[in-house]
Amino acid sequence: PGADPVDAAEEQRRILPVIQSLAGRGDAVISVDTYREETARLAIDAGAHIVNDVWGAQREPGIARVAAETGAGLVLMHTGRDREKLPDVIVDQFAFLSRSVEIALEAGVGREQILLDPGFGFAKDPDENLEIIARFEELRPLGLPFMVGTSRKRFIGHVTGRDMEARGPGTAATSVALRLKGALVFRVHDVAMNVDALAIADAILDHARPAEN
């Protein structure tokens, strides 16, 4: 929030060498954050596997065509930036993300390529972020898996009073809550802490499932 925007050339200058370097080191899956069609295509050529668009393919819809043509994964994130949000946070999620999915499918992206992201912290105040967590299961009718990125975000500091570097435990708490409500992929800074927290969440889910006859 509040970062100075950069043009496509500067964006590419910063990220393409990093992607190329990471791609040459092993078999890790590499995700690139961009809303620009050109940058997405170059990033995939450099070795990226997933494009994460913080505008949900609504800033440059051609980014969906890149995913369709290359087979790359596509994360469609909700944002409240530069638009008037609907009063109910879940209704607004449905309205925005449904349009993003429509753009992707019309471009030829397979449903199996798509992850959705509720966009924690993107033009959302602390109460809105917390309400999305509390009501997260209401997003399941969208019918696609969700990635979430709460890690160290300001709403966690608002609740805990912790500075950014000390928000790992608060992040892990949100990871557990969101996993229990259906989130699939977690984008975090403190990996080991969240792996353990999610192991507990998955163990709880295993015990909550009805026994097979």
Keywords:
two-stranded parallel sheet; alpha/beta; 213 residues; 47% helix; single chain
Largest sheet: 4 strands, parallel
- Biggest sheet, strands in spatial order? 1-2-3-4
Radius of gyration, whole Å: 18 Å
Shape: globular
Low-pLDDT regions: none
Oligomer: single chain
User: Which percent range fits the helix content?
Assistant: 40-55%
In whole angstroms, the N-to-C terminal distance is: 51 Å
Q: Summarize model confidence as the mean pLDDT.
A: 96
Strand-pairing-aware structural class: alpha/beta
Quote the beta fraction: 5-15%
Helix-strand topology string: HEHEHEHEHEHHEH
Structure notes:
With 213 residues, the protein is of the alpha/beta class. It is 47% helix and 9% strand. The chain contains 8 helices and 6 strands. It has helices spanning 8-23, 37-46, 62-70, 89-106, 126-134, 154-160, 168-180, 191-208; strands at 31-33, 50-53, 73-77, 114-117, 147-148, 185-186. The strands form 2 sheets. It has a 4-stranded parallel sheet with strand order 1-2-3-4, with helices on one face. It has a two-stranded parallel sheet with strand order 5-6. The mean pLDDT is 96.
